[in-house]
Amino acid sequence: MPEDDPALSAEEELALARLALAEGDLRHAAEHVAAALVRAPTLPEVHETLARLAAASGGDLDLFPLGHHAFVGAVVARAHLLAAAGRPAEGLDLLAAATGYAPAVEWAAVPWVTAPDLPERLDPERTARILMQVCATAPDPVPRRLRDPLRPYLTLARNAVAVHPAHPLLLGAASALARRLGEIALAVTWASRGVRAQPTKLGEVWLGYAYRSAGRTRDALAALQRAVALDPDDLAVYADIAGTLADHGRLDEALDWIDRALAKDPTFDCAVHTAHRLRFQRDGDVAHLVALADFVRDHPDDTHEHGDLAECCRGRPWLGQVTPAGGPVLDALRQALAADAPVAVRLDGLEPPSAMRTAAVAAPGLAVEVAAVADPDPREPRRATTCQLWRYDGTVAAPTLPTPSAEAAERIRQLAHPAWPHPPAAYDAAVGLATLDLADLLGVLLHPPAAPATALGRVLAGQDPSLWVRCVQVWACLGLLHHRTDEPWDGSTRRRVLLELLWGVEDWITEAAMFALVTAAWVDPAVRTDVARVAAERLADVAAVARERPVPIAVSLAHLALATPDLDPSARAVAESLSAGPAPAIPAGALGRLWRRLTALFRRA
User: Residue 429: is it exposed, middle or buried by C-beta count within 10 angstroms (0-12/13-18/19+)?
Assistant: First the structure.
């Protein structure tokens, strides 16, 4: 159902439809009526013109054809003609399809859908199937802003239940819709009546969901367990029981139910997803999430989309988001931006070059004095490298590479974001950078483009430019993972460059390179041993340096190590020790509120 050109208003489309009708050009009249329905699906004049067209054509349905790429306006117009022709069930099927395509539009808010006598002309099972079709594409629960377009279907459900008060399938489907629309007490009432009329597995599931939404956990579990007794082979119900138990802190019981499901079918997707999520919830071992990512990759045809992996990664350092940077120079930068006045800061030691340069560019009046440069010298790479990105003049760092091309800068600007569902999703999203030259990807690390003119970009530019710079560096390194992927990993350009970045001077780029390597290990089991070894070596170096002087990126690198698949237990112990240090705080004010919204984008469906 492709969108059409939105240039004309409903009134203009109707005027053209009437002209075409007057000329007997029914085909063009139908096209304009369909377009008017998209603009104003409840406007009486649209329906009057549709009625005139129906009268002129003898109710010709072929004026609004269906097909693989059917226009949504034609689908809705055909639905109304079917209802007028005494075929309302077929019309409701089409309206439900339109609602699934564009749920924020009031396609069903028309008199014939909400007429009290409509259910008398419908088979109750067909009505139930229509309500189930609406539920299948609706969020659970439906956000308040999207509820009004669905309320006509709830009115249809009320009218149908009044006509068929003991039909179990209808009562259950009506309960499911009521629950999604926040009518919890009504959902419980209808589902209870449905089970009393005829106990079925599906009816007990609907009742369990209604009880769960009402906060009646014990009753919900009892209903779901009755559903299992009625159909012991429906493993999705086992997963529902496990999820309900886990939501109330009963993890051991939840895992017992999941183990029962997996004993019946070790590959059942709902059980596998729930099992890994709950095991991670119990012990925090990232191995469970890596195993889940492997399962998702190896089973692309799951029964439906799952959000367990994203739920576990959301808000966690590097698993689902860039970690905010901290340190006195960034504190001074934020103060300078907030005060819009000169600020001076004296540093006990040298901060990462990306931090120093970000401050210098974003607040040219910021006066920074470095008291001393401690050993080991942070201006020197940790290992010999042929990819020297920074050149120092005393304590001032300057980029060694030219600015990237305008195309590379724009592509990064469109893609960079501080949050992602999980590492494999970040990897997939970065494929758009695969065609950029290596020089451009490296240049972007040192010369990040300006933040985009979006709500996110404006807040970052005005309150914390450091987060935008870190976003750019992370996505540039993810782009490096897609560079010349035809080369075998061990001798590849992408591996060599990321390792050189990893062992360069201590910088935010070090973190971005390590995240790219960790992501590679998530998506490709063949490179896990290599990446785990590299992560352990880099972490050991950080720990050794940290015994001599502060390492600003130590906590972040520790979190990255903890996200690394197959990390050696001794390295994990070092990472856990380092990660216990003070983490950068989430900024306050508008930036903090935006950050919390960003990290809540990827909620479980």
Answer: middle
* 604: confidence class by pLDDT, cuts 50, 70, 90: very low
Q: How far apart are CA 96 and CA 100, in angstroms?
A: 6
Alpha carbon separation from 602 to 103, 421, 424, 427, 565 (Å, rounded): 20, 6, 14, 16, 22
Residue 215, by phi and psi: left (phi above 0), alpha (psi -120 to 50) or beta? Answer: left
Backbone angles phi, psi at 325, to 5 degrees: -85, 150
Q: Supply 264's token pair.
A: 């019946």
Measured distance CA(389)–CA(9) in Å, rounded: 55
Closest C-alpha among 362, 355, 358, 332 to residue 345: 332
Predicted pLDDT of residue 595: 57
Under DSSP, the state recorded for 150 is G
Contacts of 531 (CB under 8 A, 6+ apart): 517, 518, 520, 521, 564, 565
pLDDT, one tens digit per residue, over 472-492 is: 999 999 999 999 999 999 999
Per the listing, tokens 């440069």 go with: 373
| Chain mean pLDDT for the chain | 92
Residue 566 has phi, psi (to 5 degrees) of: 60, 30
Element of type H or E holding 138: none
585 vs 356, which has greater pLDDT?
Answer: 356
- Residue 569, pLDDT > 80, answer yes
